[in-house]
Amino acid sequence: MEVTEPGRISFGDPLSIDVDLEGIRRVDMHCHTDHSDAPVKVSDALREAERKNIGIAITDHNQVSGSILAIKSAPSTLVIPGIEVSALDGPHILIYFYQPGDLQAFYTTAIERKRQRSPYLAIRSSTQEILDQASGYACICSAAHPYGYLLFNKGIGRCVERMYLKEALISRFGALEVISGGMQRFENIRAVELADKYDLGITGGSDAHLLRDYGGVLTYAYSEDVEEFLDAVRKQQNFVIGKERNLMEKSLMGALIAPRYLPFLIPSIAIHYEQNVPRIKKFFLKKTGRWKNEP
Q1: How far is Cα 81 from Cα 152, in angstroms, rounded to an integer?
Q2: What is the reported pTM?
């Protein structure tokens, strides 16, 4: 097992590592179901969580119905109310709520009417707008896969690094996802360094779209319920253990979720085009010295 930050962040298979779990709850804080782009039923996700003795946060793309259903269906399983919001300017934002009612209210007021024809891709709100709207609720905003994803700019770290977004936005987050199962090791290590630089909380999640990947990355905290667990994250009293998927596992996942995007192919292309126009503009502003990375 590789330890990056002593006592808080370790790389390895959390389900095979011997950890004294007395008083500790462990949660995969980034899971998807068929309520967005994964071929996983909520009932199957809950059974898998019970089998592996883990809690889960169902963080479907721009959707909360799977999370709400899981909370209602499994009172004995620790389910953290959550959502993954895709911002128009790039980053994916994981938002964890203390109360499911707040999750539903946030979705209804801030997300539902902003979704586009490709429902799993960017909504019509910027990162700053999403964070502003979330600030009215008891919740924790964690930047998903800060240096992801592949050729796309789906992480706050990558967007700032490429000067698409202002650096000041990073400090608006309460936490960073320091181990993401979909990233490469060096990208996760950079996320760890970014969280340390800004003194932010840490979360970890598998970004699972297949049942087999649930529990690949776990966040641990001494807690009895959602409130105590999220308080531990906020107070930086939690730790994360996890591993990245290999290329074959990532390829399998991609092949199995691709059909869920096919019905939205044309609007998906339009969204990616819309997202990249301002990025190209900022690239040229940077080259001409007219772009300043400041608040």
Answers
A1: 27
A2: 0.92
